[in-house]
Amino acid sequence: MARLVIISGPSGVGKTPLHAALVRLRPDLAAGLEKLVLFNTRPARPGERDGVDYHFRPRPVVEALSADARYALVEARGDLQAVDLTALTERLRHGDALFEGNPFVAGRLIDAQGFAAIPRLAIFVSPLSAAEISEVRRFDLASFVTRLMRGKLERRTMLQKGAIGAEDRATIERRAASALAELGHAHRFDRVIVNHDGEDSDHWRLGALVGDARRSLATLVALLEGRTAPDAERWSEGTVPESAGA
């Protein structure tokens, strides 16, 4: 029976290179996962393609989709995104579907009544383990997570563009500030993959994967194959305290 696979987490945590590594190194698994392409109001990043990564459209165009019951609209980190639920339903009639993106859309898919009977594997990619969060929360968890993700996003932007402009800086700050609240959704997912090698890490670009990039792919493969994944975590609702994101 077809299943819905979700790979989600904060911006810059490494979701996209993780999926790209799966496509490159385990094409047998990736081939059966048709990626769900959302509508998005943000501009395309260097290397992104319209119709492949997202359907990049002006905000008024995406807003207009709210009048059509086929679409679910979600505001995420200042961007408006829309999911074509009819297209997703049709895909699931024929095979597995993959959503790779932010936890706000992922949560909408997890809660969607129309997909309640569909087998689902929801994976959250986190820049910190539960033990690390427990240690850091004794100090200032919100500030720590924001600084951590700001650094990853700055390095990602430099890799993509070679410089960080004023608009880039505003986007980085918005996404970094959202990261802790997004970590607070991780307990709703089936498994958490702890990945310190974010999208900025060279460990994804050396040909052979090393470090957490290698371990994260091995964990993802095990989960997709239904095998035991010792490195995958399960988080309880209190792993990230609600007060930390206040």
Helix and strand arrangement:
Elements lengths: L3 E5 L6 H11 L1 H4 L3 E2 L3 E2 L14 E2 L2 H6 L6 E6 L2 E6 H10 L2 E5 L1 H9 L8 E7 L3 H7 L4 H21 L4 H18 L7 E4 L16 H14 L22
Parallel strand pairs: 1-7, 1-8, 2-7, 3-4, 8-9
Antiparallel strand pairs: 3-6, 5-6
Helix pairs in contact: 1-9, 7-8
Structural description of this entry:
It is a single chain. The chain is α/β, with parallel strands linked by helices. Helices cover 41% and strands 16% of the residues. Strand 5 (71-76) and strand 6 form a beta hairpin. The longest helix has 21 residues, at 141-161. It is globular, with a radius of gyration of 17 Å. It starts with a strand and ends in a 22-residue tail after the last helix. 39% of the residues are buried.
